[in-house]
Amino acid sequence: MSADLEFYFDFSSPYAYFASTRIDQMAARYGRRVHWSPVLMAALFKVTGSVPLPSVPVKGAYILFDLERTARHHGIAYRKPANFPILSLAAARAMLWIDAVQGNARAAQFAKDCLRAYFAEGIDITDDNELLRLAEGLDVDPAALLVGIKSPEAKEMFQRASNAALEKGVFGSPFVLVDGEPFWGFDHFDQLEACLAGQSQR
Amino acid sequence: MSADLEFYFDFSSPYAYFASTRIDQMAARYGRRVHWSPVLMAALFKVTGSVPLPSVPVKGAYILFDLERTARHHGIAYRKPANFPILSLAAARAMLWIDAVQGNARAAQFAKDCLRAYFAEGIDITDDNELLRLAEGLDVDPAALLVGIKSPEAKEMFQRASNAALEKGVFGSPFVLVDGEPFWGFDHFDQLEACLAGQSQR
Hints:
The structure is a homodimer.
Chain A: E1 5-9, H1 14-20, H2 23-29, E2 34-38, H3 41-48, H4 59-74, H5 89-102, H6 104-120, H7 128-136, H8 142-150, H9 152-167, E3 175-178, E4 181-184, H10 189-200
Parallel strand pairs in A: 1-2
Antiparallel strand pairs in A: 1-3, 3-4
């Protein structure tokens, strides 16, 4: 089996949510698996000098409209969260703790559940209680997770993960690396699929 | 026949070049025509606080790579111009002069020829002589055009066109309005086509 695809995403990124509903299935069609890594756009944006899209004049309003349209176009449930955007530190730390304790597949499922909860079900994932509830559904011990989220180790894991992503040239969300080749944005998933199809024919 | 699609583009925008090879044919498939309008990204970027992509750290290098990949993916001839990006004032003024004298269809053909010359054939479209040569191939009198480009009227026409675009919420290139609905970017042409297909069934 080929190397895993690397999927980088911010829990506050709606286009990452859209991507999260597709990436595993797409990879599986070509015999590939996916390694999920949370990033913090606020940290990435320092490198590129970018600002959160919703805060940009004119473009911000377009993006909010485009999110509704893109969700409809792909048949993805989506409802703009009341608190958007958020600083998604707690969700990212929780995910990395689950990754360390139960592996990346379980962590990825947690991430997918969080993204759907936030972007389709009106659930506030900056609330620790909501994170614990979501984790509990995956057979993760909530008491241990709560300790984990608050631990210096979780903060350090996330710092390390962020730096590793930056070093690989990740500058946005969602971002996919296929054997080192970068794909930025949900709207590049057609080219991502073409790449996977081409490689599976080699 | 329905209202024309409005196609906004900067002569210095490679994704607009890609879009220019598709937009007329796509519109025609749904019984629509396209009105072409040049804009200056430098002016639009003042509104959104954006900077030219190639100058952004990390992201700039990705974009240059993505341009090659996107051209290959869609089978479009592309060669990164030696002088990129450019301030495309002369080409835009020439196009608007042709539009005023010979109509938008001729002006659109001039724009397509300029974009292909610049982005596929290594021709410097900041050079007036190249613009005149391209116009001559379309039966435009080069001597009159040269006077036209330099005229205060051409400058004013472009200023007016830019302001009109800004007022309609155009903030990037390429940008398409379909009966007022905005589509930003060549990578949104699948959603643009879905919109046209949906409207043609009404």
